[in-house]
Amino acid sequence: MTTALGKDLKAEAASAAGRQGVVWTLEGRGDLNANLVRFGSGRGVGEHVNDEVDVVFVGVSGSGTVVAGSEKFTLEPGRLVFVPKGARRSTRSASGEFAYLTVHRRREPMRVVPLASPRERHRRTRDPGKEVDRMKRHPSLRKFSDDHHGGLVQARRLRRAAAGEGGPPAEVARAFLRFWAEDASPHFREEEEVLLAVYARHGGDLEAEPIREMVADHARIRGLAMTLIEEDRSDEVSPDTLRGIGERLEAHIRLEERRVFPLVEAVLPDDGLKELGARIGTE
Length: 283
Fold this sequence. Notes:
CATH architecture of the largest domain: Up-down Bundle
Distance between the termini: 46 Å
Number of strands: 11
Shape: elongated
Number of domains: 2
CATH class of the largest domain: Mainly Alpha
CATH superfamily of the largest domain: nmb1532 protein domain like
């Protein structure tokens, strides 16, 4: 059962001095998602379109602007701005300590959906029958989201094999290890060596909980992959290992799509997002 909660948002924003982007999130509270966002002078969220949910902005401290379509609104303590889904929007701080709360309906979870036509897909997955429906992303981050398509498909195959519902565990394990070597492991390195480096270069907080969880997940999944490699060599693939990788990989992808990538989008200025895209080859 969801419990009531009270929060001093102004004090929370003040305690986050020096941090940029999302500094507090309302976790596990029913139908709503709320984020306390903080930026220094001249910083903010670059122009983008959210087609999924309407969003309410409430000023907490300092002052800044919210641009929605062709309209520009001042946001300061006590003021509210409503932005409908589908509107092109951005925010910008006009003071040294600009903080605001965003509130919206919790987004639907990612899911596996029927395969789209080749022209409708940005990138094919290794599963010819399924693909993952991804959330809207800034162009600089879409490559990472596209990589997640194959990851969720592999996670589902591993869990099914562990439950005795898919192909032979040994075959599923070898297919995953090929995917790991060719796709997942390089994807992890690119996130660590490029995504996090650009995020930190532009003032991102590497101690933010979603970032710490992301890095820890990478280490855990790498360890599980090492275990599976050893089991494959000895022809003793354990269903528990397959299940562990499948569950951990899916949870990790959801973490990045729901918390890490929105944080990066909120923190990086336009030039930071362009730099990220250029370094991973999407610009």
